[in-house]
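Please produce the structure of this protein holding phosphoenolpyruvate.
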Amino acid sequence: MTEKWVYLFREGNAELRTLLGGKGANLAEMTRAGLPVPPGFTITTEACNAFYEANQTLTDELMEQVWAALKQLEADTGKTFGNPIQPLLVSVRSGSVYSMPGMMDTILNLGLNDDTVEGLAKLTGNPRFAYDCYRRFIQMFGDVVMGVDHYHFERIIQKQKEIRGVSLDTELTAEDWIQVIQQFKDCIATHTREIFPQDPYEQLKKAIRAVFLSWNNQRAQIYRKIHQIPDHLGTAVNIQLMVFGNMGENSGTGVAFTRNPSTGEKELYGEFLMNAQGEDVVAGVRTPEPIAELKKHMPKVYQEFQEICQRLEQHYRDMQDIEFTIESGKLYILQTRSGKRTAQAAVKIACQMVEEGLIDRKEALLRIEPEQLDQMLHPRLDTNVESNVIAKGLPASPGAASGQIVFDADDAEYLAKQGNKVILVRPETTPEDIHGILAAQGILTSRGGMTSHAAVVARGMGKACICGCEQIKIDLHKKEMTVGTLTLKEGDLITIDGSTGQVIDGEVPLIEPTLSSEFRQILDWADEVRRLRVRANADNPEDAAKARELGAEGIGLCRTEHMFMEPSRVPIVQTMILAETREEREEALRQLLPLQKEDFKGIFKAMDGLPVNIRLLDPPLHEFLPNAEELAVEIAKMQMDDQTDQMELKRKQALLKKVRNLQEFNPMLGHRGCRLGIIHPEIYAMQVEAIFLAAIECKREGIRVEPEIMIPLVGHVNELKLMRELVDEVAGRIQEETGEKIAYTVGTMIEVPRAAITAQEIANEADFFSFGTNDLTQTTFGYSRDDAEGKFLHAYVDNKILPDNPFITLDTEGVGALVRMGVEEGRKTKPKLKTGICGEHGGEKRSIQFCHRVGLDYVSCSPYRVPLARLSAAQAVL
Ligand code: PEP
Ligand code: MG
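Below is the modeled complex.
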């Protein structure tokens, strides 16, 4: 039996999303529900994949099914393809399983040619409209199918306007468009050496092919990568009867959301343009009117639209993004889909819908992308600081951002790579700017509405964005923008506030966001269902307090080396490292002791009543010393200077010798971690003493302390055994001297493969395991964590040698297998062995879900990722 590649809208339904794509499935569902949807049919995503498998050819079998569906469409509409009296005109649109706004291609008005255009003119009694449609079709077809840059077409229109002395497209007459059409055809012939096809069947076949090909255009590929949409899904193609929003003053087209996609407020939200076609709204060329204005233009249509919006929202139980067209006073729904929304809106809508009884809590938790919670923690403007507001546009995506102005997506990408913060400023944003949007802190456009593509994309990424800021005039050529008398050039600093639409001259301080009650509500629900505990990685009291505020249930990793790196302590640390004798070293350590003790006290206080996992010193010692090359240059200069203090010179020379002695070929595999503690036990002894003195002082102040002492980089049980003895000995001594008892545990990081493999043995000496998946990834793959990303890892991911960057998303098959093994082996020795993760993966959604599956007790991540981790842990259960 031959496969079914084509479905009439009335044959499909919402369940067939994978096959029909989101748009196709929704059109089918709406058709079934009796909504006013123009008829049509969908070519499946499987047909797209078959197209690629067949070397990018449209098979006869597929095309036979397309022609059959087209016959049916003709029968349903009473119109005929290519017939000059009753011409059937269609739109051809992409539609993948996941919405990818504007990333793929669309062709409207297909079926027009030199004959049918006249038919359309007669039929509508409006030749201007008919020729306008025809030129739009040639323009789109020329661009999308035949590859002629749309710029050439725009130039022809511009010239025609100049000849006629008018400034708007709408001022051009039918005769003007007839001339433009001839020039368009010539332009296509010149650029492609092909004739614009007159045969509608040929037009359709070519259009289908172009839409399939657009699945793999560059911007679609980038979008899929950012949103983790698999490449193998393919796109469906929807072929639908054209309805015309540009048929006159009682026609129009627009887009609306059933709730406000920025704030989540329950209100119809959107915009429309009278006498226009869809692309006019979406492309952001003309600035549309707010949807509420439609009520004034056409009260009846507005009411019908409102009712349909409500019905659709109830039906899909989610906020909808609806495209509509009014043709001569009749309303058509062209598309509905779950609307993209900001993090803030997602959280608010989910809570509201639970309250309205539309969805349950579980559904609400699953509706929120954990990354979105992270976005909500982003900064906003400090309103106490005077700021020079220079313009106001549409608040397209909330959050504030400051940076240097750049006018080009490539420049934005380049400068951001150099470590600069940039604001991408464009007249209008197009999907081609996506890499610039990705690189920028925020986006500002002078034209376009809230539903322009880049606004949608920015919201999805949680970037601040202002659209349609018409007061600013941008000169791309000179790379400058003017507002009134003020001129700002590339590189000048501005601040944008995507929540209010304000554009501000210069840099404005940003402050931390406050969390909405809905944000807390969602996280409370998450806490009710999750099994994994969530801790934070923090090395100072401020971070610890922040983490606790965001819901951390303890510290999973306190990296004590960060305390050593504080500038005022570095000289003491250096003396400690450079000491020739044990006594000398101990003297430096004695100076460090009270400082470390205060550090720990601050953290214990912030974490009163919660466990605090402190890791003893881990990095190679030379990290605390000056750079050898720089030091050598400095010495050379001193030697040439008669005034040089000879003692100081000698000290520097000794220092250089020591630095060189400590240098290693592979420092990450060298003298670090517990290897340091074993060779220099006095360092670890000082740290343990500081921990216990701090714990005891805190205890005496009524603070409940729960220290966990962690030994890094253990690969052999004997290493841990030795270090555990050291900890117990110092702890015992301090407790005896002070007469106080502190309950504590000693455990190890599992961050080299041997530790995971021999976990059963290691567990004999450990009260807990914490998987250091940064190092475990480094040592399992044999990739240097400091070099791999810049050198080859990007290419590995781009070329799909690896599915993901393993330093971001846990490699479950390799590194993850070792984690699983470590847990299982360790629990053979101690069934209740506490296990956690403290590598960066502890704050990444998919990795967290893996941690849940392998039965870890907790994840630990940076403070700001704690909410994300709480939600991910809940989703892992659901
Ligand atoms: C790790 O290796 O995963 C870890 C948490 O330790 P660090 O990143 O400090 O090496
Ligand atoms: Mg490590």
